[in-house]
Each structure stands twice: as C-alpha cells, then as structure tokens.
Amino acid sequence: EVVMEVLQGGTWLLPWGAGVLALLLTVVAVYSLRSLMDHCWRWWVMKPIPGISPCYPLLGNAPLFEREGEGFFKQLKQYFEEFRHVPLFKLWIGPLPVMVLYHPDTVEVILNSSKHIEKSYLYKFLQPWLGTGLLTSTGDKWRTRRKMITPTFHFAILTDFLEVMNEQGSILVEKLEKHVDKEPFDVFLDITLCALDIICETAMGRNVGAQENKDSEYVRAIYRMSDLVQRRQKSPWLWPDRVYVLFKEGREHERNLKILHSFTDTVIAEKAAELEKPKQGKCDADGNCEGSGPQKRKAFLDMLLSVTDDEGNKLSYRDIREEVDTFMFEVPRGAIVGFFCFPHLSLTTYRHFSLYLFPSFSCFLSPLCFPYLRSLCAAMRAAVGDSFFTWKQRTLPSNGQRFAQMEEKTLLALILRRFWVDCCQKEEELGLAGELILRPNNGIWIRLKRRPNSVS
C-alpha cells in the first residue's frame, strides 16, 4: 500500500519531466539547426565533385578509413590512383569536406591566393598541446607572433645552435661505429633520438639524453601524443571534447598532455629564474654577457623570454609555452622527413654530397643532384606533361625550415665524412605510414662501410 501511494503521488511529476525533456530537445535542435543547414549547403554545393563512396550521413567516409597509419596511407594512394583522371575529388571526414587537387591549374588557384589562408579545422586538435602558436594560429595573431619571433633566428643564433648539432651528431656517429662492416640495421630510431636531443637542448636549453635513454617519459609522451592527435583527426565521433574524455584514448591524451606541459612549464620557470638573477659584466644586444666564467649557450627559450613586440610588451608564460611546444613538435619531424624522403639518396658519394648539398626540398627537385633524381623528374614530366606554374612565395623560410635544413646538413656531413652508406630497402618496402608526418613503419635499413681516409 505504501508503494502504491508513493507511485500515485509521483505521477504528477511525469508531465513536468516530459516538459523539461521536450524543452531540452528543442534547445538542442535550435542550436544544431544552423550547423545542419551549413552541412546541407556544403553537401549540395560539392555534390557535382566526384568523391569516395559510400558516404554516410554525419560520418562521411570516416568509417572506411584504416585505423593504422600504414594502411591509411595505402588507402589514400588507392583513392589517388582511382581519381587521377579528374582535376580534383573530395573526401568527407564527418561533416568536414576535404578536397584533393591534382591538376596544376587547380593547385595554382590555391597556392597563389591571398584569401584562402585559414588553417584547416583539423588543426584544432593540436591546440590542447600547442595552443595557438605559429603553427595553429592565423590572422593578426599569426602575423604579430611571427614578426616577434623571426628576428631571433639570425645567423649568430643559428651558429650557437650549430655547436649543439655537432655535439649530438658526434654522439650519433659514435653509436653508428658498432655497425661498420656488419649486417644491415635500422637507423631510423638513432636519427630520431639524435634529432630530439638537438631540439630539446636548442629549444629549451635542457639535455634530455634521448640517445642514451630512449625510454624517457617526455620522449614517449611526444610521440604518443602525435599518434593520438592523428587518430582523432580522422575519427569525427571523437571530435567533441566531452565525448573524447569518455574513451580510453581521450584519457591517455590527458595524461600525456600533463607530462608535456609539466616538463615545459618547469623548464620555463627555471629559465625565467635564471634571467632574474643579477647579471655581471656587460651584455650585448643578443643577451651575451662578458664574465669570468664560461659563456652559456642561449636557447630558443632564452630569446622568447626577452623578445618584445612593437609596443614593448613581452610574451606571457602561456605564449612562450605555445611557441616552445610548437618548435618541439615541428622541427625534429621535418628533419627526419628530409633525411628519408628518398632512401636512394644515401647512395651518394662524398663528392656528390659536397657539390650538391642544397636545402632539402629544392635538392630533391633538382635533376642535377643525383642520377636517381633524373629518372624521377622524367617520370614526373611524363605524368604531367608541360603543365607548370609559378608560385610566388610570400614569406621568408619558416624558423623551423631554417633550423631543420641546418640540422640535416650537419648530420649528413658528420655521417658521410666517415662512412659509405648503402640503402638496403626498395621504396615499396619502407611501409610508409600516413600520420602527422610521413613515417617509415618498417624503419630505414642501411649498411655502413668506413670511408678511406675518413675524418674523425
């Protein structure tokens, strides 16, 4: 009887509950209406453009994508071959359309445009880690930040960085000594850890010893975070933040984010404390001070702590962390990609190297560099005919490009002065994985021989 009375007494709550639920659904529908209309409009406008099928409502082509990087890259290559006869085709990643351009006439419109310069929505998933630094920001903030930071990469500073590159490169060469005149081995991890040691010391003034301790928590967090971001980018059901944290990947993302930001915050605080100490001796415009002790090398972080805008305002701690984390994310990957875009280049002789070591990407496109590239350029010419266009580069090379080019040249010089390098893989054996960078899943297998009269 008591139970029945309680149930009867609670029946008056049902209309109220139904009303509240109806109100919530109405609010959600109103807020979603504009997004739904925008999606329908984009779908209608792009309907004539050929695309991948099947294409599912709201999810697009995302359920078709391979989860692992190597399978995903092969899948994209298949799509490219399938649609090669058309100027462009589309992919839908959830509600986001992605255009793939082929013909030079269509590419030219984008590259020479001063209007279509906004960063893709997919950059949003880097922001929890990198904030809105040079890589992820746009508009006025990007212009202001670039104007502040670019002068810090003048020739004298890069010369200081060169000292670090030579020190870490020498450690790498000594590690490679044990492989001379022996069986082929995978050099990819060795190069990766060397690049990481270089960037940590030049960016933050902190030697993490990655070449000696590859199990460093910070090192693991950098590479795991890259994997998590790339997986999230191609999985639209993981895009909402509140949904993402309910999944195992979302919780792992938060753990690695704390490791990365905690490390950077600690180093920034230590550097800021050093700058607050009374300085003895005279200091020049670059912050190099005269004193009795040995002169300490300046890191990218030191410069960020002292740089100001046109009105004399310094960067906040958050701004500094954004740029340091961005530099840590971009540069090692660019250098590694530059090393291994064409494994055949490792067949070059010391003479070829000394004559034709140009900045990485222009070198790869020059038919004068190496015999292999002549056949590559011939194949490209056969594929596109005489379709070329002029792309007027509007900005100077990025800070990361300057740094990565110097790093590539330094490490290559150290390696090729001592060893003959023979690549033991064909291009199709690399197992290229389409992640945030293009990475060889099967490593880079080489064989080393000592050069006669090598310079130690």
Overview of this structure, please?
It is a single chain. The protein has 456 residues and is mainly alpha-helical. It has helices at 2-10, 13-46, 69-82, 104-111, 127-130, 139-149, 155-176, 188-204, 217-233, 241-244, 248-276, 300-306, 317-340, 350-356, 360-364, 371-384, 399-418; strands at residues 88-93, 96-101, 185-186, 419-423, 432-434, 438-440, 445-450. The strands form three sheets. The chain has a three-stranded antiparallel sheet. A two-stranded antiparallel sheet has the order 1-2. β5 (432-434) and β6 (438-440) form a beta hairpin. The protein starts with a helix and ends in a 6-residue tail after the last strand.
Mean pLDDT: 76
- The secondary structure category is mainly alpha
Q: What is the general shape?
A: globular
What is the end-to-end distance?
Answer: 96 Å
User: Quick one: CATH class of the largest domain?
Assistant: Mainly Alpha
Q: Strand-residue fraction?
A: 5-15%
The rounded Rg comes to: 27 Å
CATH third-level topology of the largest domain: Cytochrome p450
Number of domains in the coordinates? 2
CATH level 4 superfamily of the largest domain: Cytochrome P450
What is the number of E strands? 7
Helical segment count: 17
Low-confidence stretches: 340-374, 391-396
Share of helix, binned: 40-55%
From N to C, what is the helix and strand string?
A: HHHEEHHHHEHHHHHHHHHHEEEE
Tell me what the CATH architecture of the largest domain is.
Orthogonal Bundle
Biggest pleated sheet: 3 strands, antiparallel
Order of strands, widest sheet: 3-7-4
GO molecular function, one term: heme binding
Keywords: Membrane, Transmembrane, Transmembrane helix
Transmembrane segments: 12-33
Organism: Dromaius novaehollandiae (Emu)
